[in-house]
Design brief:
With about 160 residues, the protein is α/β, with parallel strands linked by helices. The protein has a single domain, classed as 3-Layer(aba) Sandwich (Rossmann fold). Helices cover about 55% and strands about 15% of the residues. It has nine helices and five strands. The chain has a five-stranded parallel sheet, sandwiched between helices. The chain starts with 7 loop residues before the first strand and ends with a helix.
Length: about 160
C-alpha cells in the first residue's frame, strides 16, 4: 500500500452492523479506542428524532457535523460511520482520517439495509471514489475481514 495513514481511521460499510463489528474488532486488535459516529451523535443530541422534528434538518445536520469534528479530534481511535453520516460530513472526515471502505457484494448486505440495497450501485461507486482505501470483503466472517484489512494495509506495525 502506498497511501500514508492519517492520524485517524474511519471505516465505512454499506452493511452497518457488520462494518461496526469489524471496525470495533480492528480497534481491539491494535489496542485503540473505538467510536461509532451514529452513537456519538445520538448521545450528543439525546433524542435525535425529536431534535429533527422540532428544529429541522438544517439544525440537525449542523449539530451532526459539530459532533463529527469533535470525534475527528480523538487520538488513538478507530471510527465507524454509516453511508449517510459519511456523506453528510465527507469533507470533515477527509481532512483528518484515512477513509477505508469495507466493500461487500450486494448479496452480503443485511435485510435491514434496504436503502443501501436499493441504491447499491450508486453508493458503492461513490464510496470507491471518495475513500482512500477499498478493502474487498468476500464473506461476513469477522476474522477473514480483519485479515483482508491487514493485508491491504501492508501489515500492522
Amino acid at each position: 500500500m502506498d497511501k500514508k495513514i492519517k492520524n485517524g481511521i474511519l471505516f465505512i460499510c454499506l452493511n452497518q452492523s457488520f462494518g461496526e463489528k469489524v471496525a470495533r474488532a480492528f480497534a481491539d486488535s491494535i489496542s485503540l479506542h473505538f467510536a461509532n459516529c451514529r452513537d456519538l451523535i445520538e448521545y450528543d443530541l439525546f433524542n435525535s428524532g425529536e431534535v429533527l422534528s422540532q428544529c429541522g434538518e438544517e439544525y440537525y445536520l449542523m449539530r451532526e457535523k459539530k459532533v463529527i469534528k469533535m470525534a475527528c479530534s480523538y487520538e488513538d481511535t478507530i471510527m465507524f460511520a454509516n453511508y449517510d453520516i459519511f456523506s453528510h460530513s465527507k469533507e470533515i472526515f477527509s481532512k483528518c482520517s484515512t477513509l477505508i471502505y469495507l466493500k461487500l457484494s450486494k448479496k452480503l448486505l443485511s435485510d435491514d439495509d434496504k436503502i443501501n440495497r436499493l441504491a447499491f450501485d450508486i453508493r458503492d461507486k461513490e464510496l470507491e471514489k471518495s475513500t482512500d482505501i477499498t478493502v474487498n470483503i468476500k464473506s461476513l466472517k469477522e476474522k477473514n475481514a480483519l485479515k483482508e484489512i491487514i493485508s491491504v494495509l501492508g501489515g500492522i506495525k
